[in-house]
Amino acid sequence: MSQWTDMYRQKLTTPEEAVKLVKSGDWVDYGMATSQPILLDKALAGRKEELKDVKVRMSFTFAPRAVVEVDPNRETFTAMNWHMSGYDRKLCAQGLMNFIPMCYRNEPSMYRDILDVDVAMITVAPMDKHGFFNFGLNISANEAITKKAKKVIVEVNEAMPRALGGRGEQIHISDVAAIVEAGSIPMPTIPFKTGDEIDTKIAEMIVKEIPNGATLQLGVGGLPNTVGAMIAESDLKDLGMHTEMLVDAFYLMYKEGRLTNKLKAVDRDKASWAFALGSQDMYDWIDDNPFLAAYPVDYVNDPFVIAQLDNFISINNCVDIDLFGQISSESSGTHHISGSGGQLDFTDGAYRSRGGKSIIALRSTFHNKKTGKDESRIKPTLLPGTIVTDPRSQVNWVATEYGMVNLMGSSTWERAEKLISIAHPDFREDLIKAADDMKIWRYSNKR
């Protein structure tokens, strides 16, 4: 029996015993997505009547959180979130969850320098022979959270893949206060779905902008998936990956021989990432795979690091853009949708890259279910209360199904002209009138 095995047995306990480490007034951290605990969450919820004023931070939730469900009046637990999933969004709309604004790259430093963590409860892969628990599919800010926490409880899940670093991908048993075994609870998955003919049209324009040897970052959703699938079917060569979110599109590129990382100036021969969500096949690919290198998000999303990668192509989508070039990817008016995430990190970093491009891609219209009408995503101004994710000063390329335009260096009248040129034709005249009223439409502008 090794010393680590003996220590493991000493610290192994039940969820109910483990959560007794939480006291009234504590700050508790669940981590992000696949890091969030299941058994410990239920056990903590079971202490509702004996605790007061427990603040729980989490992010990107993919299963109901018991501490929220058991406390609809927020008498004991106050839930807060760094980036909202569909489930989180509903809670936010009901006043049951509060959003924490951030640039994603800054999350680890906020834990190191500003935030208090009394107890961290993190899901991990089984301990290895050296006494390390692996954070698996979510590296992100877990190292910073657990180092700051006064007490760390790990929930060991045999279904969690073991992700190789990089760095910051693990915690040693000597830094753990309690261990709870969860058996094998399947990891949350998201299906890989490509978009329709409109997404395909946008993707075709974007793929033409990608040279051989480019390093890629992709967001999540039908449009980035369509871009990834199209790249996999292309004849592009020696592509690299440096992305906050590892998605199935990269796995598809790898299987088709497009993704090699051979030409990266940083982390050559390695595909670098901070967290992963996708199919079980992708999780199996991640498990113990030296081709992939997981890092904390303050490294992956650092614009200085991104800028060192030539021909860096960042592809993300958004909710709305106005004629000044302000982009919102997290709210529509005061209706909260997701979060700031790392879009601004990559918008900045890709622009700094030699030969790089930051591309914000969006469909020109959306169907408003409340009015039953199609509306333009390119607006004269953002709706009151809308959060600006990317300031107009940092926006590079914008793409819709009607074309791609580069806003960098463009005056307000040039921006208006360029953005109206890629708006849906049905809305262009109204946008021109609005631009004229706002004194950003020049007499010589194209119509």
From TrEMBL:
| Highest taxon above the source species | Bacteria
- Which Pfam families does the protein's record reference? AcetylCoA_hyd_C, AcetylCoA_hydro
Any idea where the Acetyl-CoA hydrolase/transferase C-terminal domain is? 278-435
* Compartment list: Cytoplasm
List the GO terms this entry assigns under cellular component, sorted alphabetically: cytoplasm
| UniProt-annotated catalytic positions | E244 (5-glutamyl coenzyme a thioester intermediate)
**Molecular functions (GO terms):** acetate CoA-transferase activity
Question: What EC number(s) would the UniProt record show?
Answer: 2.8.3.-
Q: Which UniProt keywords apply?
A: Cytoplasm, Fatty acid metabolism, Lipid metabolism, Transferase
The Gene Ontology biological process terms listed for this entry are: acetate metabolic process; acetyl-CoA metabolic process; butyrate metabolic process
- Indicate the secretion signal residues: none
Positions binding CoA in this chain are G219, V220, G221, G222, L223, V319, G342
> Do the record's keywords include Cell membrane?
no
| Reaction equations catalysed | butanoate + acetyl-CoA = butanoyl-CoA + acetate
User: Which positions fall inside the Acetyl-CoA hydrolase/transferase N-terminal domain?
Assistant: 7-191
Please give the pathway this protein is involved in: Lipid metabolism; butanoate metabolism
Function field: Coenzyme A-transferase that converts butyrate to butyryl-CoA.
**Name of this chain's protein:** Probable butyrate:acetyl-CoA coenzyme A-transferase
User: What species was this sequence derived from?
Assistant: Megasphaera stantonii
